[in-house]
Amino acid sequence: MHLHKYEKIWLMFGVGSLVVFLLVIGIGAFYKGTHPQSQMTTIDPQNVEANEAFKQENLGLTKVDENKYILNVVASAFNYDLGVDEEGAQVKSIRVPKGSTVLFHVTSKDVVHGFELAGTNVNMMVEPGYVSSYETVMEKPGEYTLVCNEYCGTGHHLMYATVEVYE
Amino acid sequence: MINEKLGLSKQETKLSMAYIYVAFIALLIGGLMGLLQTLVRSGTFTLPWGIDYYQVLTVHGVILGLVLTTFFIIGFQFTLINKTIGLTVKQRKISWVGFWVMLVGTVMSSITILLGKASVLYTFYAPLKAHPAFYIGLALVIIGSWVACFVNFRQMFLWRKYHKNEKSPLLAFMVVINMLLWFIATLGVASTVLIQFIPWSLGYADTINILVSRTLFWYFGHPLVYFWLLPAYMAWYAIIPKIIGGKIFSDSLARLAFVLFLMFSIPVGFHHQLTEPGIDPMWKFIQVVLTFMVIIPSLLTAFSMFATFEITGRKKGFQGIFGWVKHLPWKDVRFFAPMVGMLAFIPAGTGGIINASHQLNAVVHNTIWVTGHFHLTVATTVILTFFGISYWLIPALTGRKLTAEINKLGIIQTIIWTIGMTIMSGSMHIAGLFGAPRRSAYSTYGGTEQASEWIGYQYSQAIGGSILFIGIILMVYIFIKLAFFAPKGIEEFPIAEEEPDAEPTPKFLENWKLWIGLTIALILFAYTIPFIEIIQHSPPGSPPFAWPIGNN
Amino acid sequence: MTSLHHQKDEKANKKESPDLKGTFISVMMLGLFILASWFGVYALFVIR
């Protein structure tokens, strides 16, 4: 099969670009560990409290070290359970200082949900039977909307919370 | 007499047109849904009669993404293959069975959706549970389509038997590749629907394995988009050159592109599951690499298209580096509409590369960017090409002629579509980069500043969507004119030819056993180990959840 | 030997390669668009 010389150059350039893309994301993923969320831990969706992270008292934000936090969340239709505050009210907003490393642990009690912190790379599917987790450094101060971005039913668009990163 | 010239009998044209009627009815219904969605999401409109947004969204996705596409494609493909390699009476009768099974299935599923019992969107993710008739209807649509597959396979088998060592007509080759792709792909969705969803929704199975159902769906879901794209490529490679007064640039490269699509469209479903738990990231990356392989035949196609235009233009005396652009028949809607589709594929395909780029997916996953992306790919590239095909296909099949008046309307329709889509898809891409979620009714998300930004883009999505709806009405009007009111006559059926001194096509391209074998080998490589791992490490399955979608 | 080889070469050159400069520039522009877009989103990922 004869290829025109310009076609040969185009294909070399095109395939070369694809190889560059794959190298960039491959090195990022395998060498620097920036794979997309791929937590393998399983859980019983009808008994999420059996997993330490999702016991009622462990839900929400926990400081584990200077500038290091864990956020345990149970998602259900149509709410993110971020635990309760001192008065016993449902937490709807989380506050962390700028520069904190936050490790998110999320699972679902019922159907598939999304967990997206808009404006960050925290974007994962939350599936019953699995724990989803992702760690990120919250560098930029501001108010981040936590949205469910996978259809979970009639109240899907009412499922949200906020994370505030303060100076 | 018309049929003699056309090379298709009246019965054959009736078969093709049956599919196409369904497609255009689907276009009207689905388009109306889309308009309602953009209006609701602008915050200025509430759906009447207690209709749920997600019910409307389900109709929109199912009727446009599954019904319109599949029916138009099978109707169009039957025309191409029947004309080039012939259909026997027995094959024709069996084909009708396929049509009716598909139609019954479509109506079944549609009724459940309209009754509010199946607001599960076209991806019907477990453990959201729809009425069992929804899943049974879908199964019928798939099985009906297999009838068409087997007829097409038989047509090719017989042709090859009586034309030993000859290369098959290009369009017949392409149709069979696409139907092979479809058949192999639908085995995945058929498995999950028949083995998992139907028994589970009927109560015979207590739980469903969610990750297995999702993996089987996306094993189908990615090649689905190539099933949509390849008929557009058929028109670009083998019809458009005739319309512009040229020849096929390279028969070999066209076949090579299609063979590459067959092999690399399927073993890549994980790129739709990149942010899911429970799947080994190494296998996600391997399927990302395979996804990048499927970009290559599109790169080949881009070159072939431009080359066809340039060679034709230069032969007609248009000189200079871009003189050939002027030569193209921009005022002929049979060229103009597909050409706009081709140009739309530039941002469309680019977005696709970004979506599949492993960790980059986190920037866009389940945001409205993705919706913007597929409105460029299927709702512009593919659909404008299908519209462009309709202008000659429908008159040819109904014994009528494309008039100058309809041609002019078609140019206007194409321009309206382009303007509407640029505004709507453009806003979707930008809002998505700002994190706006997809598949969501109107919400202020607790009044955050980010959400108010998203709503701003939802206004422009409504403007774009309204303009597109005008385009839909116009296209349905054009369809009615073409099918029922255009003057009788003989419409040219443009099939491109090779150059008289074209290089012979290498025989290995017609080696069906090799290509099918490699396709299966690649699927087994990409899926066996991760699929077994998923099954072995499965958590307890999930019971059905009907209340979240408004049922009990 | 040499003259046979020479004849074959001439035959290949007689069927000239078509002038595809416009095509080449068009696809290269497409390629640059892909590169620019991809690295744009990559930058967004890295910054976030």
From TrEMBL, chain A:
Keyword Ribosomal protein appears in the UniProt entry: no
Instruction: Work out whether the entry's keyword set contains Membrane.
Output: yes
The record ties this protein, via PROSITE patterns, to: COX2, COX2_CUA
Please list the reactions this protein catalyses.
4 Fe(II)-[cytochrome c] + O2 + 8 H(+)(in) = 4 Fe(III)-[cytochrome c] + 2 H2O + 4 H(+)(out)
- Pfam (any one): COX2
CDD domains linked: ba3_CcO_II_C
Instruction: Give start and end of each Cytochrome oxidase subunit II copper A binding domain.
Output: 66-167
Query: What highest taxon heads this organism's lineage?
Result: Bacteria
Q: Where is the chain membrane-spanning?
A: 9-31
Question: Which cellular compartments is it found in?
Answer: Cell envelope
Q: Which UniProt keywords apply?
A: Copper, Membrane, Metal-binding, Transmembrane, Transmembrane helix
Return the Gene3D superfamilies for the record.
Cupredoxins - blue copper proteins
Give the protein's function: Subunits I and II form the functional core of the enzyme complex. Electrons originating in cytochrome c are transferred via heme a and Cu(A) to the binuclear center formed by heme a3 and Cu(B).
- The name under which this protein is listed is Cytochrome aa3 subunit 2
Record organism: Virgibacillus litoralis
From TrEMBL, chain B:
- The organism of origin for this protein: Virgibacillus litoralis
Question: By what name is this protein known?
Answer: Cytochrome c oxidase subunit 1
Where does the source fall among the domains of life? Bacteria
Q: How does it sit in the membrane?
A: Multi-pass membrane protein
Which residues does the UniProt record annotate as the domain Cytochrome oxidase subunit I profile?
1-491
Its ancestry begins with: Bacteria, Bacillati, Bacillota, Bacilli, Bacillales
CDD domains, per the entry: ba3-like_Oxidase_I
Its main localization is membrane
Whether Cell division counts among this entry's keywords is no
Automatic annotation (TrEMBL), chain C:
Q: Which InterPro entries match?
A: Cyt_c_oxidase_su2a
Q: Name one Pfam family in it.
A: CoxIIa
> What top-level branch of life does the organism fall under?
Bacteria
Membrane among the record's keywords?
Answer: yes
Q: Does the keyword Membrane apply?
A: yes
Q: Which UniProt keywords apply?
A: Membrane, Transmembrane, Transmembrane helix
Q: Can you tell me where the transmembrane regions are?
A: 24-47
What protein name is recorded for this chain? Cytochrome c oxidase subunit 2A
Organism of origin is Virgibacillus litoralis
The lineage, from the top, is: Bacteria, Bacillati, Bacillota, Bacilli, Bacillales
